Every structure is written in structure tokens, then in C-alpha cells.
């Protein structure tokens, strides 16, 4: 029925609506109508989901429950004679059990979505073969389901850049990727680039002496056309953005490039963005948040904050970032993960706080491991 007949799906709204939305957006499934059971505790998520489904021309009927233990048989009476499929991917045990029992009594199919394998698996009838689904949401859609609006600095959807701008972005990504993978022995040379920028006049600078490692960093900028030497000590940046890049943004570009390089090879890779600004409503006010790098893989959202200037003594700054990531992950649900990326080693205190909050920390040369760990989380290994 899922593939061959127009039908109604019945599902339960929780703080993770993605397993409800994914089957509705799959082009091979002929769902014409959604009946959504909503308990009092989850009504806060309803408005955003209704708006999202309306934008995709999906009709929705909301049944408000008093408790998860409410008898649902009379609530579903009008659907006993209709073509109905029940989605039990979300919901507490009591209401899921009631839905399965109702479906069994009225000979209705029941499925659940295995998020890690992107397969619809049937509980009733058991002999029905699993159905493979595609993850069609991008970052903007994933957040819209949660009532969050997003804008990006660099994103595949932003195709209005000319060839020169694209070449500049690629040059920044290339250098950022290289610097993010440099051994720890380069840390002082990288930090010195920030001090060089502060002494510049516009795009022009002067450095009286430099170490071998500093010169290697200058050469990296020259090789991609971001810097030109005017003589042995004077130089010029070819674009103003290079100054911003050297103040620490190189780590964001590097993280973005390293992740894209690995993740785009996967079939379940959905989206990546650099420099995301997003707004959300809280107590009637619109709050603005920013995130350095955001990845959507297998319907798992990864919020990544990059801090190239951390020192081991900056426990307060590290802890503040960890708490912010944790708060945003709580807001966006269990399918969201917070990550802190920094070139320097973080303190034991920061590491303990991150472990308590479920936030990943990738410092120093461990940054190279981030893409593999994100893949492992998306595959359900963590």
C-alpha cells in the first residue's frame, strides 16, 4: 500500500519529528494525508511541523491527546475503513503499543523507520520486505521542521558567486585544510600570523624577521594567490578577507574542507554549510545564534564550533562554548550533536564538562579524526 495506493499515515509527534517527516517526503511513497497524535508535552513542536508540511503540500489532521495512556480507539474510529498505514518510529511505549494493537485489530500495516539504515521495516504484516528511503532533507529543511530559520555564508545553494569569488573561497579552504592538519609544532607560528595582521596597514604588511615555519605559512598563502611579496620583508594580501582568515577563521575553512572531502563520498551525505546564522523563538523573542560549520549526515545534524585561539588556561571560554553547544543540541533534539574543534589542547576541566554534556572535543592533531567519528555516529556505532 505504501508504494501503490494513496493512503493516510498515522504517527506520533515527539521532540524528534524527522522519522515522521522522512517517509512523507520520499517520492516513491504515496501518502496523501497525515494524522498526527500529539500529547500535551510535545505540543510545542507542533506549529513548526505544521508549517513545514504545509509548505510541502501535505495535509495534516492533529489529534490532541490528554495523556500518552489515553484510549485511542474512539479517536481513530473514522479511519478504520480507510487505507491507513501506521508509523510507530516515535512515541512512548504506551501509545505505540496502543497503535500496534489498533492496527492489528483493523488489519492495517505498521512500520518503523530504522534511521541508521534508512529502511522502513514492517511489524505488520511481518512478511513485507523493507523499503529503502532517501534522506531528502537539507540543513535548512531539517531546521525548519524544528521551527528554526537559517542563512549561510558558504553553502552549495548559494550559486550567485562569480568565478573569482569561487576561486577565492577554494584558495581559503585549501590553506585552511593544510593548516588544520599541521603538527603541533606549528602552533606558535600559526598564532604569530594573527599578530602580524594587527600590525598591517590595510592590505600591506611588514615583517622584520620570521622563522622557517612562519615562512612556510607565507608560502602556503603565495601558492594559492592570497599573498604577494613586494620585497624580502614587505608583503601584500590580494584580498581583504585574508586578514580575517588569519585571525582564526582559517580553522573554520579547514574544518569545512576536511569534512566535505570525506563526507561527500557517502551516499547518505545530505548537506554542509560554513558560517550559519539561525534564528529561533524563545518566550516570544527572536534569538540569533551562529555556528561555524554545520553538517547533515544520515539525518544527524552536527553543530561544530571552531576556536583556533584557545589556550589551556581559557577554561571559562571553553566551558561557555560547551554549554552553548549542549543547549542548542537539546533544542534541536536527540539527532543533533555538538562538537568543539580547537588547535590547542583543552584542559581536563573542559574535557570533563564536555563528556558530561555529550559534546565532542577535537584538539590538536586529533582534528583529522573528526570526519571518521561523524561517520561512525551517523552509522550508529557511537
Provide the spatial order of strands within the biggest beta sheet.
3-2-1-4-5-6-7
What is the H-and-E element order? Answer: EHEHEEHEEEHEHHEHEEHEEEHEHEH
Query: Structural class from helices and strands?
Result: alpha/beta
Report, as a whole number of angstroms, the end-to-end distance.
Answer: 35 Å
Give the second-level CATH assignment, the architecture of the largest domain: 3-Layer(aba) Sandwich
CATH topology of the largest domain: Trna Endonuclease, Chain: A, domain 1
Question: Radius of gyration over alpha carbons?
Answer: 25 Å
Number of domains: 3
- How many distinct beta strands? 16
Helix content: 25-40%
What shape does the CA trace take? Answer: elongated
Beta strand %: 25-35%
What number is the mean pLDDT? 91
Helices, strands, pairings?
Elements: E1 7-12, H1 18-25, E2 31-38, H2 46-55, E3 59-64, E4 84-87, H3 93-105, E5 110-114, E6 119-124, E7 131-132, H4 139-145, E8 149-154, H5 163-180, H6 187-198, E9 204-206, H7 212-223, E10 227-229, E11 234-237, H8 241-263, E12 269-282, E13 285-297, E14 300-306, H9 315-332, E15 336-342, H10 348-357, E16 360-363, H11 370-378
Parallel strand pairs: 1-2, 1-4, 2-3, 4-5, 14-15, 15-16
Antiparallel strand pairs: 5-6, 6-7, 8-12, 9-11, 10-11, 12-13, 13-14
Helix pairs in contact: 5-8, 6-8, 8-11, 9-10
Amino acid at each position: 500500500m505504501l508504494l501503490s495506493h494513496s493512503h493516510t499515515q498515522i504517527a506520533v509527534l515527539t521532540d524528534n519529528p524527522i522519522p515522521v517527516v522522512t517517509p512523507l517526503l520520499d517520492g516513491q511513497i504515496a501518502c496523501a494525508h497525515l494524522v498526527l497524535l500529539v500529547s500535551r508535552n510535545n505540543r510545542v513542536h507542533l506549529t513548526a511541523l505544521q508549517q513545514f508540511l504545509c509548505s510541502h503540500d501535505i495535509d495534516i489532521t492533529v489529534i490532541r491527546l490528554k495523556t500518552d495512556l489515553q484510549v485511542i480507539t474512539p479517536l481513530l474510529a473514522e479511519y478504520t475503513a480507510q487505507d491507513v498505514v501506521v508509523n510507530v518510529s516515535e512515541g512512548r511505549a504506551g501509545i505505540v503499543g496502543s497503535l500496534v494493537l489498533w492496527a492489528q485489530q483493523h488489519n492495517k500495516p505498521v512500520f518503523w523507520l530504522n534511521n541508521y539504515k534508512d529502511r522502513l521495516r514492517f511489524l505488520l504484516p511481518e512478511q513485507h520486505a523493507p523499503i529503502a528511503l532517501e534522506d531528502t532533507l537539507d540543513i535548512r529543511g531539517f531546521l525548519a521542521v524544528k521551527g528554526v530559520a537559517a542563512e549561510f555564508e558558504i553553502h552549495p545553494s548559494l550559486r550567485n558567486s562569480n568565478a573569482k569569488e569561487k576561486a577565492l573561497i577554494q584558495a581559503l579552504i585549501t590553506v585552511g585544510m593544510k593548516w588544520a592538519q599541521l603538527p603541533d609544532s606549528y602552533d606558535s607560528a600559526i598564532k604569530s600570523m594573527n599578530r602580524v595582521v594587527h600590525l598591517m596597514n590595510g592590505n600591506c604588511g611588514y615583517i622584520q624577521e620570521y622563522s622557517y615555519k612562519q615562512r612556510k605559512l607565507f608560502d602556503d598563502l603565495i601558492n594559492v594567490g592570497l599573498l604577494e611579496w613586494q620585497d624580502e620583508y614587505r608583503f601584500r594580501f590580494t584580498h581583504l578577507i585574508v586578514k580575517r582568515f588569519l585571525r582564526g577563521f582559517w580553522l573554520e575553512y579547514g574544518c569545512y574542507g576536511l569534512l566535505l572531502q570525506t563526507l561527500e563520498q557517502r551516499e547518505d551525505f545530505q548537506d554542509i554549510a560554513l558560517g550559519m546564522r539561525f534564528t529561533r523563538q524563545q518566550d516570544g523573542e527572536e534569538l540569533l545564534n551562529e555556528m561555524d560549520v554545520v553538517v547533515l549526515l544520515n539525518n544527524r545534524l552536527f553543530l561544530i564550533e571552531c576556536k583556533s585561539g584557545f589556550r589551556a588556561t581559557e577554561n571559562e571560554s571553553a566551558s561557555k562554548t560547551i554549554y552553548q553547544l549542549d543547549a542548542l543540541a537539546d533544542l534541536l533534539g536527540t539527532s543533533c550533536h555538538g562538537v568543539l574543534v580547537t588547535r590547542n589542547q583543552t584542559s581536563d576541566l573542559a574535557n570533563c564538562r564536555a563528556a558530561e554534556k555529550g559534546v565532542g572535543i577535537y584538539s590538536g592533531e586529533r582534528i583529522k579524526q573528526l570526519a571518521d567519528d561523524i561517520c561512525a555516529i551517523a552509522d550508529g556505532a557511537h
